[in-house]
Give the backbone structure.
Amino acid sequence: MSLMLAAAAIAPTPSVFAPVSTPAFAIRELSFLVLAIVTVIFVIVAGLTVYAIVRYRRRPGDEGTEPPQVYGSTQIELAWTVVPFLIVIVLFLTTARYIFAIERHAVPAEALEITVVGNQWWWEIRYPGLGIVTANELHVPVSDAARPTPTFITLESADVIHSFWIPQLAGKTDVIPGQRNRTWVEPRTPGTYVGQCAEFCGVQHAGMLLTVTVHSKDDFARWVAAEQSVAADVPEVRAGRDLFTSVACISCHTVRGTPANGVFGPDLTHVMSRATLGAGVAPNTPENLRAWVNDPASLKPGALMPAMKLSNDQLDKLVAYLATLR
Ligand code: CUA
């Protein structure tokens, strides 16, 4: 299954012209202003060009004669210097105003604080105040005007530069190793919104998708409660669980409630609650999960998780165990 298909199964193509969040509304407003100004410039320039072509085209009898030659005009040169300069000043000041308004937005007491860590090629998502760690699928509450609950996001990188972008919620923000960048979203409409790493970061840059699910406040509270729970001990799949904790899985993955506490790969405590595998490259179905554990490169060439080299019987047991991590 291609990336586009997997992403399209979740939500329509993201567009900066369909904002649902405060910073994205501001970005669309600014885009319309810039588009209006450049449209006026285009109409004037194209109109004058067409006028000159028609008005001064070659006519019968023009052969061998040159039109009057003009050498320098202070007035025209001043006009085509000063007018563009003023336009640039206007665009610069307006853009700066929008940027500062977004960057200096106060953090209200009700705000949710989360940390997103860019990894080759997936996103770790931490909710420090709630004790939740998940991956690739962000969940946030809807924010209403009466009781705003925006989500403020601290961005970190585990390796190279990535860029965090959910077009309908906020502008791009670079994710830089050794630096903490901040962005925020304030979604007004529940739904699922698609995002994408927006800075080339290696072979699977295009396979570094993320989704943001905006819940009503009650639904968000339910999601939080479900994610906070630790993995249940299901006797029927204990063989798979023992296998999971005895092979290399646990050096990279955490399953809360078991000895597995690796941090290189995604937290799997509630892996089955996620819609996709490999940061959006494939729907999270039992067949795909089995294919992924057997050899991640079959679904995501270049993925840093190694093929696990398990027998069919071991794969069955392991996948049966993973399937209980809801
Ligand atoms: Cu991460 Cu591109």
